[in-house]
Write a structure and sequence with these properties.
Length: 322
């Protein structure tokens, strides 16, 4: 049996041959194929509520993504919490976008990940999206955190924190829906190890001037980059259930999908100077509030010493009770 390329096969299956003909010698133009997303929501560490199925068929984030795809008609989505079965070389060829809302060490073999990173991702029209704890996944696996752009290193701004965000690229399709240069949002915000500003196009940061809890360092929130002809879009937001019903956040997802697919244009040029400016500003605003790196380090050492003392006291009490 003759084998056709995937895209041509899809066209044959979707469009009856006779419907292509509108007049002798003329073909009807067909709509471009919709981007196909595999939304991976498997947790091998902490299970966030939006991806917790709680004995249901789908989690809140999965239902939101499926509804978004249906409402916009801009993409299709398949959800999985079983990478062993669904994140394979063969199955990856059925998708254009892989979106991660995951934690921990997923059961993806190094060989499969190498295929994903070196062969699948660099293709034009393919891309990766990461939400929230996608950066709390494969924390010790350099190819992954190098791809994603950073690794979770705590969240001083917890789930009930109201923070101010600053947009650095108002024209990017993934940022336009937020509607302006600054906005307030309630969500859990990460700080990062392995942040690589020289490799990414910074899109959004925590606005340290207008956020109550100060820290003397830059806190990136969203960024993008190109990998060959493929693309990556990451957004730290998504911890709270309410985030997955927020119109601006959902609009950002749609914009990012269309950007990856090449249907909307957006810059991905690395802009480390923006990150450097944010670092300087964060240091200044934190210092004005009496927060410095030296003070934070002293507090960290004091807490560690107190914890060690408590453990020693418990051990001593345990021995005395024998």
């Amino acid at each position: 049996m003759m084998k056709f390329p995937r895209q041509f096969s899809a066209l044959i299956l979707a469009v009856p041959l006779m419907s292509l003909l509108t007049a002798p010698g003329r073909l009807q133009a067909q709509e471009p194929e919709k981007p196909r997303m595999l939304f991976v929501t498997q947790s091998k560490g902490f299970v966030h509520n939006p991806v917790n199925r709680k004995n249901a068929e789908r989690s809140g984030a999965e239902l939101a993504m499926m509804q978004l795809a249906k409402d916009t008609g801009d993409f299709t989505v398949v959800c999985t919490q079983n990478v062993e079965a669904d994140f394979t070389e063969e199955n990856l060829e059925n998708f254009d976008i892989i979106a991660f809302y995951t934690t921990g060490k997923l059961l993806i073999s190094p060989e499969t990940f190498e295929f994903f990173l070196k062969k699948w991702l660099p293709q034009k029209g393919n891309g990766v999206m990461g939400f929230h704890s996608a950066t709390d996944t494969f924390k010790d696996f350099e190819p992954y955190w190098d791809l994603m752009g950073g690794t979770f290193n705590g969240h001083p701004w917890g789930a009930n924190s109201t923070v101010t965000m600053q947009i650095h690229d108002l024209d990017h399709p993934g940022m336009k829906p937020f509607g302006g240069k600054q906005f307030e949002f309630k969500d859990e915000i990460y700080q990062y190890n392995h942040w690589q500003p020289e490799k990414v196009h910074l899109l959004m940061s925590l606005d340290m001037e207008h956020t109550q809890l100060k820290r003397p360092y830059h806190v990136p929130v969203a960024w993008c980059k190109k990998i060959g002809e493929g693309k990556l879009f990451y957004n730290n937001m998504g911890h709270r259930d309410e985030t997955w019903t927020n119109k601006a956040f959902l609009g950002s997802i749609t914009g990012a999908v269309l950007w990856i697919a090449g249907k909307e244009q957006g810059d991905a040029t690395p802009n480390p100077e923006v990150s450097a400016a944010q670092q300087k500003a964060s240091e200044e605003f934190a210092a004005a509030a009496g927060v410095t790196s030296t003070k934070l380090e002293a507090e960290k050492k004091a807490k560690a010493a107190a914890a060690a003392a408590r453990r020693a006291a418990k051990e001593k009490q345990k021995k005395a009770g024998k």
